[in-house]
């Protein structure tokens, strides 16, 4: 009886020692994995302020947010009308224009300039670029077409262009992120 | 044969060394190197304690803020802080708004969005501290032919860095009469300043902290004497050189304690396994 | 290759059997660091340092790969990328300090490992190849460490690169072109930094390769031991697993504690403050020294201050510095003593403890000190003994020394008696 207890105690210590080594191994892996995630300087640069005072109705600009393009578009009343005329039930990713803009600022359409298909930059924000058959944006890589609310209407993209988190700090300045 | 060869090679090296030693010894004995003023009068840094010293030491954030104030109001006129961004100041206990305000108080190089010309704009938290001089040539021209070194890593870039910074700032003095008596040629040149804590005794920097109250500390802080300001800015430079110091020591404590525990377990397991096996 | 009583690998699971028939990797592990490798039972703690050295190599490779993920080998930004790593990358400060101090730990371990070899005669037949490969590893380590120290592009990095490549300039006729070829220019710059980075990343994997050969060569005769008496019977050995796995395992803990104290509490104590100043090709630091692990050889380099007949002092220094390590290659043939272990060699033991060790300590100290008297003279005497020890003392001592009586076997030395010894009382060595 005493014999087996001694054996058990010894086994327990051996198992505990091996477990401690295992914990140490996990402890080493954590920093090795986490060193690859975004560093402090990258995270710190992840908010952008944009002055929108110079954008006339019908125009758009490309800004940079997290090293990716952001489209800031000042919609004309006609474009807003077109967007609102669409039956959301028919959309692949049903959303109204109002849901994609801030209240009282429905003419300011702010979206990421990153096609939701495979990440190309759609055309339509720059002067003279084609806007596709729905008057919004057109991605030349695989032919996704977005409407004036930047919703996906045709082509392989699964989602509407993403609306980043943003807020109007003043009437003419938008902070993204 | 191999033995004879090896002894010959051995003799080659040892005789060459003996030759070098002999001549060196002769020169040393007959013509010892003359003492120099740097050798005789250079002082090691003073003893000074900081909150961050020792295994359990932690930054005193209030002191770091004071030190930052000294840097901003005095040192930053000539010394850059290249590796520190305004956002880092949040670690000194400033709020996001305060960091923004501090950053905006500095003019950093920018680009005019309409003309594309270089201009200056108010800093953002993501900006780094601006350099006081555009380049080394400008720095030299403005500072009596000496480039004021970057301060971000200063406390790591000198032996006993924090004490060195403190000693240097409080160590300006008139050249001792004894020095001039022993080394008449070593009079501090014009435009330089005598300081026994500097390696060659004379440095281009004029005493930057000259009088008590040169920087105004807010209420609840110690009196801004030259000594206190020097200590505070040295503490701030410990932080700029190693912002992760607190985290390093905390991690170290946890890791070391765990390792001690694991090692004791490992030792017991080792004794178990070898039990009854004489070795 | 192994002793007849070694445990045989017997795969129990059908999958392991399947694997064993196709790629017998588990068998290899079993036979090299498992229960299939019989090891002398009397190894002391100095024998742990081989295992620790392998661990150090792994630590350096892993932390080094991490550092390379954040580093850019360009003189304009190299210094800044290291600072960014330390300041902004998650755990970057720890990775950097672990890599820098890990190099120091590696050298501490390897010096103990080497001097254990000196004392216990581990280089002697039939283990000459183990020893030669070990010296190759040491040379590769030195090259790797030197190039790694250049990468942060601080003041010591730059001037270290300049001074060490300057050594090659001492070689007659081809020196200067060789130095330019090494640097890819007249002074260390982008070309040098880039190739050093490339080679610093490559060489550790070359070291891994030579380490595998080193261990392979070791497994042919099996491990040596403190008595220097070869293994005779099963009672002399224990299987590596679990015995030495447990012993090496818990000793890793001791090593890790020392390492973590260095890393977390004295991370800069073995480095030089000047390397926190960005490289400046226009201004040399007052006191250039390499990293501490090069100090003995740096002291030997500086000890030659006078031209020797037609050989310039500079060339003499370079010859001696490389010679100081190359002489280790000849050790198995310089020391012809039939007895392996220093414990049974009274005269050799004295020269080891009162000659080689103090000389080495003095060289360590002087290599880090300023190039001024009296340090130069002291290092000259120490260097003189260093060369005399290997090239003159060792061959003579091994010829004239009368060794102490050896135990019949490892078992006898451990237990005080060995039944086999009674059966064969006339056996020697």
UniProtKB/TrEMBL annotation, chain A:
One Pfam short name: Rieske
The UniProt entry's GO CC annotations, sorted and at most eight, read: plasma membrane
The record's cofactor note says: Binds 1 [2Fe-2S] cluster per subunit.
Transmembrane ranges, per UniProt, are: 12-33
Assigned protein family = Belongs to the Rieske iron-sulfur protein family.
Complex and partners: The main subunits of complex b-c1 are: cytochrome b, cytochrome c1 and the Rieske protein.
PANTHER family, A to Z = CYTOCHROME B-C1 COMPLEX SUBUNIT RIESKE, MITOCHONDRIAL
Its protein name is: Ubiquinol-cytochrome c reductase iron-sulfur subunit
């Amino acid at each position: 009886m005493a014999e087996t207890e001694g054996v058990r105690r010894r086994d327990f210590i051996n198992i505990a020692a091996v477990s401690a080594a295992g914990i140490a191994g996990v402890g080493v892996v954590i920093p090795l994995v986490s060193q690859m995630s975004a560093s402090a300087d990258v995270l710190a640069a992840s908010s952008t302020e944009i002055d929108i005072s110079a954008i006339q109705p019908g125009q758009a600009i490309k800004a940079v947010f997290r090293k990716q393009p952001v489209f800031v578009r000042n919609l004309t009343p006609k474009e807003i009308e077109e967007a609102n005329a669409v039956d959301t039930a028919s959309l692949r990713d049903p959303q109204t224009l109002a849901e994609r803009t801030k209240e009282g600022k429905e003419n300011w359409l702010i979206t990421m300039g990153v096609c939701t298909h495979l990440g190309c930059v759609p055309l339509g924000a720059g002067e003279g670029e084609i806007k596709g058959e729905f008057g919004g944006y057109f991605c030349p890589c695989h032919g996704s077409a977005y409407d004036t609310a930047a919703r996906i209407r045709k082509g392989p993209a699964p989602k509407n262009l993403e609306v980043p988190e943003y807020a109007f700090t003043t009437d003419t300045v938008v902070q993204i992120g | 044969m191999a033995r004879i060869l090896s002894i010959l090679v051995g003799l080659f090296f040892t005789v060459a060394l003996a030759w070098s030693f002999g001549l060196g010894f002769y020169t040393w004995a007959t013509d010892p190197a003359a003492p120099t003023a740097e050798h005789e009068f250079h002082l090691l840094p003073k003893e000074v304690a900081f909150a961050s010293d020792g295994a359990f030491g932690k930054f005193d954030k209030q002191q770091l803020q004071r030190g930052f104030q000294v840097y901003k109001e005095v040192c930053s006129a000539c010394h850059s802080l290249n590796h520190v961004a305004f956002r880092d100041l949040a670690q000194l206990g400033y709020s996001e708004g305060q960091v923004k305000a501090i950053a905006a108080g500095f003019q950093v190089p920018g680009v005019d969005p309409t003309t594309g010309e270089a201009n200056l704009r108010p800093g953002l938290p993501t900006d780094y501290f601006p350099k006081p001089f555009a380049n080394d040539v400008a720095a030299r021209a403005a500072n009596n032919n000496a480039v004021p070194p970057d301060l971000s890593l200063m406390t790591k870039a000198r032996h006993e860095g924090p004490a060195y910074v403190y000693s240097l700032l409080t160590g300006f003095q008139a050249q001792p009469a004894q020095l001039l008596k022993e080394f008449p040629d070593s009079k501090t040149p014009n435009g330089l300043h005598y300081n026994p804590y500097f390696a060659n005794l004379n440095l281009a920097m004029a005493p930057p902290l000259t009088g008590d109250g040169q920087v105004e500390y807010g209420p609840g802080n110690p009196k801004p004497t030259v000594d206190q300001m020097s200590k505070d800015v040295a503490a701030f430079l410990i932080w700029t050189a190693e912002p992760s110091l607190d985290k390093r020591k905390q991690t170290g404590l946890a890791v070391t304690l765990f390792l001690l525990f694991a090692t004791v377990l490992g030792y017991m397991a080792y004794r178990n396994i070898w039990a009854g096996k004489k070795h | 290759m192994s002793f007849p009583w070694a445990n045989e690998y017997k795969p129990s699971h059908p999958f392991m059997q399947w694997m064993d028939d196709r790629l017998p990797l588990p068998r290899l592990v079993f036979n090299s660091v498992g229960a299939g490798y019989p090891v002398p039972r009397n190894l002391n703690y100095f024998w742990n340092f081989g295992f620790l050295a392998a661990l150090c190599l792994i630590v350096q490779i892993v932390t080094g790969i991490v550092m390379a993920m954040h580093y850019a080998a360009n003189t304009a930004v190299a210094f800044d990328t290291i600072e960014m790593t330390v300041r902004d990358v998650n755990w970057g400060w720890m990775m950097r300090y672990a890599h820098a101090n890990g190099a120091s730990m590696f050298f501490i371990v390897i010096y103990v490992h080497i001097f254990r070899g000196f004392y216990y005669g581990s280089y002697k037949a039939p283990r000459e190849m183990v020893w030669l490969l070990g010296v190759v590893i040491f040379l590769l380590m030195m090259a790797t460490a030197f190039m790694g120290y250049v990468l942060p592009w601080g003041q010591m990095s730059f001037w270290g690169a300049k001074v060490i490549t300057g050594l090659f300039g001492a070689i007659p006729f081809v020196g200067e072109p060789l130095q330019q070829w090494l640097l890819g220019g007249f002074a260390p710059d982008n070309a040098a930094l880039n190739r050093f980075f490339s080679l610093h990343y490559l060489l550790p994997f070359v070291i891994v390769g030579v380490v595998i050969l080193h261990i392979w060569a070791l497994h042919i005769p099996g491990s040596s031991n403190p008595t220097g008496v070869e293994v005779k019977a099963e009672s002399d050995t224990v299987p590596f697993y679990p015995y030495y796995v447990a012993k090496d395992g818990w000793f890793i803990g001791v090593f890790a504690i020392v390492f973590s104290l260095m890393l977390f509490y004295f991370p800069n104590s073995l480095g030089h403050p000047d390397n926190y100043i960005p490289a400046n090709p226009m201004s040399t630091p007052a006191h250039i020294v390499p990293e501490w692990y090069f100090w003995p050889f740096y002291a030997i380099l500086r000890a030659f201050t006078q031209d020797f007949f037609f050989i310039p002092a500079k060339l003499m220094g370079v010859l001696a510095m490389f010679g100081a390590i190359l002489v280790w290659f000849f050790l198995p043939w310089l020391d012809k003593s039939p007895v392996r272990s220093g414990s049974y060699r009274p005269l050799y033991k004295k020269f080891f403890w009162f000659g080689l060790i103090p000389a080495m300590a003095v060289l360590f100290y002087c290599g880090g000190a300023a190039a001024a008297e009296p340090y130069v003279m002291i290092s000259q005497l120490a260097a003189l003994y260093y060369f005399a020890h290997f090239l003159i003392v060792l061959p003579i001592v091994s010829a004239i020394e009368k060794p102490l009586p050896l135990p019949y076997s490892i078992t006898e030395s451990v237990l005080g008696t060995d039944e086999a010894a009674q059966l064969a009382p006339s056996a020697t060595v």
